[in-house]
Specification:
By secondary structure, the protein is α+β, with helices and mostly antiparallel strands. The chain is built from 18 helices and 24 strands. It has a 7-stranded mixed sheet with strand order 18-19-17-16-22-23-24. A 5-stranded mixed sheet has the order 3-2-1-5-15, sandwiched between helices. A hairpin with a 4-residue loop joins β2 and β3 (25-32). The termini are far apart.
């Protein structure tokens, strides 16, 4: 039997997953790390901690699976998108990575828009200037840390730093690179005109490949650390959203995915690049060759529930520790005890600003409509509903771009909750299908690795064999009017609170 390894370098931790060629999960391991917030709205991580998590995870899955390293025929890399990793000429990290949810670059986004022009920027990169994207972070370093900027030999995305550590090769691929805002998504290569206008040296960018292409091979040094075989192929891989979409079989038009992780995403594959003139959703290259995707993002999805747990749920955390029950099972049970509409509470999930439908790094989150009748259960439910309303905003825009919605597949940590899945279905007004593969992004890049290694003929071929629908959740039609009214109130709130 041949095996494939997927590494998913997430925000809270790295998941390492080993699969056989039929897509069955053999063994997984997850190691976490810290997120640093030096100032309000800033978010950074230490790339060395990602690498340590990868090394531990790879060792674990190989040892505990009893699979021979020589039988692992390919490695795929996925990871949090948009993060800025600066590397010097000695291949050392210059400073902590400024990651996707960091909001410090509003000034640089204005600079970028003034220099390039909003319409031209969308035409080239698929998106307006956004605080989360890599380019504005690079400009921030140039403006604020010139001594660090001068030391730059290459800039990398999080997963591509792991590629460097595994293979000693500087490379990226189209799906993640198009989230840097320096790629021309029409030609699927770096935009020389954009770089010239911004006075950025193209040589600091890694070579860019299609996602299924083998970009490097495991070095002797990395093999010793990880227990991998020397020369194991490493493919381009994918940004976390494109990888997760492949893991859910979102490789052709009509099948939509919604993912509830730290951030929340609604994702649609397209055969041609399509643009929202206002730039409210992202148009990027898909990890499937010659395909693109549209992606709406809410910054604070699972992040919202995690923040609420840490800040307001000491009793529930204690109960979880005593009983051994998963804390989020306890919290979603509390949500189920509240009524649809959360007894009047509306939650706005803007803990880290917002991307879709409001491109606003400064907007703050809120609980609105609180009264004496409300209890803890109502607050928990309002978070699940507020995140779901934000995701419906994304879906509405994608539908208005003439994208067919034949099926919606749901995944991510939040989607493992039957309560949250039902709330999503009720608010979307669509049936939702889960897929058997809970590994999502790790499976997606393992599939890419399988194509690169010649195990599968194509990404579409692999998905048709591996990805199967599982549980289906139908919307409760009795709640259509209830949620329609609450959704109207939710949508009316942003203009009223945005300047607070």
């Amino acid at each position: 039997m041949r095996y494939l390894l997927g590494l998913d370098i997430g925000t809270s931790g790295t998941k390492t997953a080993l699969f056989d060629e039929e897509g069955n999960t053999i063994k997984t391991a997850t190691y976490g790390y810290d997120l640093f917030q030096p100032q309000v709205g800033w978010a950074e991580q230490n790339p060395e901690e990602w690498w340590e998590a990868c090394v531990k995870g790879i060792r674990d899955v190989i040892k505990k699976s009893n699979v021979q390293a020589s039988d692992i025929k390919g490695i795929g890399l996925s990871g949090q998108m948009h993060g800025l990793v600066l590397v010097d000429k000695d291949y050392k990290v210059i400073r902590n990575s400024i990651i996707w949810c960091d909001q410090r670059t509003e000034k640089e986004c204005k600079q970028l828009t003034d220099t390039i022009g909003k319409e031209r920027l969308i035409k080239i990169t698929g998106n307006p200037a956004l605080t989360g994207f890599t380019l504005s972070k690079l400009l921030w370093v140039r403006n604020n840390e010139p001594e660090n900027y001068e030391r730059i030999y290459k800039i990398l995305l999080p997963k591509d730093y792991i590629r460097l550590k595994l293979t000693n090769v500087f490379a990226t691929e189209v799906s993640d690179a198009s989230g840097m805002q320096m790629l021309d998504i029409n030609t699927r290569n770096w935009s020389l005109e954009l770089l010239k206008d911004l006075n950025i040296d193209k040589n600091i960018l890694a070579d860019v490949y299609e996602s299924v292409v083998v970009s490097g091979h495991v070095t002797e040094e990395a093999a010793k650390l990880t227990s991998l075989a020397v020369n194991t192929p490493v493919v381009g891989g994918a940004g976390d959203q494109a990888a997760g979409a492949i893991g859910n079989g979102i490789v052709s038009e009509g099948i939509i995915s919604t993912t509830v992780g730290s951030s929340g995403v609604v994702f649609a594959a397209t055969d041609t690049p399509r643009f929202d003139k206002e730039g409210r959703v992202h148009t990027l290259c898909h990890a499937v060759p010659n395909k693109w995707h549209i992606m709406g993002v809410t910054q604070g999805a699972g992040l919202s529930l995690n923040w609420f747990k840490k800040t307001f749920c000491a009793k529930e955390v204690e109960d979880s520790e005593k009983s051994g029950r998963y804390i989020y099972d306890i919290l979603t049970e509390k949500a189920a005890a509240s009524k649809p509409g959360s007894n009047g509470i509306i939650y706005l999930p803007y803990l880290m600003g917002e991307r879709t439908p409001h491109i606003d790094p400064n907007v703050k989150g809120a609980f609105l409509g609180v009264s004496l009748i409300n209890n803890h259960d109502d607050f928990v439910r309002s978070i699940l509903e507020g995140v779901s309303f934000s995701l419906k905003n994304c879906l509405d825009i994608i539908e208005n771009m003439n994208v067919n919605v034949d099926e919606i597949r749901v995944s991510g940590g939040g989607a493992e909750s039957s309560v949250w899945r039902q709330i999503l279905a009720d608010i979307f007004g669509y049936s939702l299908t889960t897929v058997k593969a809970s590994e999502g992004g790790a499976l997606g890049v393992a599939i890419l690795a399988g194509v690169g290694a010649g195990i599968y003929d194509s990404v579409e071929d692999a998905c048709s064999k591996i990805i199967k629908g599982n549980l289906k959740v139908d919307p409760n039609t009795d709640l259509k009017d209830v949620y329609s009214k609450v959704y109207d109130v939710y949508n009316s709130a942003y203009p009223k609170i945005k300047d607070i």
